[in-house]
């Protein structure tokens, strides 16, 4: 209908299987007729979003941001945003989507679980190089170019707050179903993973919210032909250990006396 109203509009869409994870089954289409029928006769639902064709590039590569948000309380609504996050890079130089390159997942999809299989994936112990970096290293780089990173952060915070406010009514329904009013029960908290894309004009766009973000701090690496080991990831450790540590401090702020063997 939108294309009928504006014949010059040539969108690309990204199709994500509902309930999927780690980039599995994601693909791009230019026309609704390209939509693949999934599953049996009763087609599995999918989320279809307009693909952002003008993302901010660094080193000619598309990247997204994973930020961690702690929902500490629903009533009153209390949330915290971790100051450090992950920046996950594609492994092929970006080109705007066309019929010729729609299938090139290493160019269009930032999912770590996909790009790890690319021959161009770069493991690095540095926070500001490689295919996975800290978000602060990206902000530092933008700042060195004269970009107002306080404005970037402010826009991201606004995006997070509005998203959680939109989620809150449904979260309260689930919470009240598990913990009836007037009955003693545990207090609950949740860490959400916000996937955000910065557009070329530095406007942040929400890609998705992950209810169960990965907290792994290691990755599989081929140390010899056919031999794989799990090795620590310096970037993951820097970001995720901080998220877990600060979350525990916030949900249980009671100071504890250290024991000799602690």
UniProtKB/TrEMBL annotation:
Keywords: ATP-binding, Ligase, Nucleotide-binding. The keyword Nucleotide-binding applies. InterPro entries: TTL/TTLL_fam. This is TTL11 polyglutamylase. It comes from Polyodon spathula. The gene is Ttll11.
């Amino acid at each position: 209908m939108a294309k009928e109203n504006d014949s010059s509009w040539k969108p690309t869409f990204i199709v994500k299987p509902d309930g999927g994870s780690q980039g599995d089954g994601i693909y791009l289409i230019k026309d609704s007729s390209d939509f693949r029928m999934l599953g049996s006769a009763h087609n599995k639902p999918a989320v279809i979003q307009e693909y952002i064709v003008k993302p901010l590039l660094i080193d000619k590569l598309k990247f997204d941001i994973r930020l961690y948000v702690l929902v500490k309380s629903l009533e009153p609504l209390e949330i915290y945003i971790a100051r450090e996050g992950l920046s996950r890079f594609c492994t092929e130089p970006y080109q705007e989507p066309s019929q010729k390159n729609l299938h090139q997942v290493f160019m269009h999809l930032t999912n770590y679980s996909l790009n790890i299989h690319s021959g161009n994936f770069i493991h690095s112990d540095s926070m500001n190089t490689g295919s996975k970096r800290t978000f602060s290293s990206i902000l530092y780089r933008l700042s060195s170019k004269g970009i107002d990173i306080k404005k970037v952060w402010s826009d991201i915070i606004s995006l997070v707050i509005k998203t959680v406010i939109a989620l809150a009514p449904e979260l309260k329904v689930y919470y009240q179903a598990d913990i009836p009013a007037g009955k003693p029960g545990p207090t609950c908290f949740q860490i959400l993973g916000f996937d955000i894309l910065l557009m070329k004009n530095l406007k942040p766009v929400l890609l998705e919210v992950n209810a169960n973000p990965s907290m792994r701090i290691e990755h599989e690496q081929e140390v010899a032909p056919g031999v794989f080991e799990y090795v620590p990831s310096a970037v993951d450790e820097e970001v995720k250990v901080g998220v877990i540590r600060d979350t525990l401090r916030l949900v249980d702020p009671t100071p504890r006396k250290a024991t000799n063997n602690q």
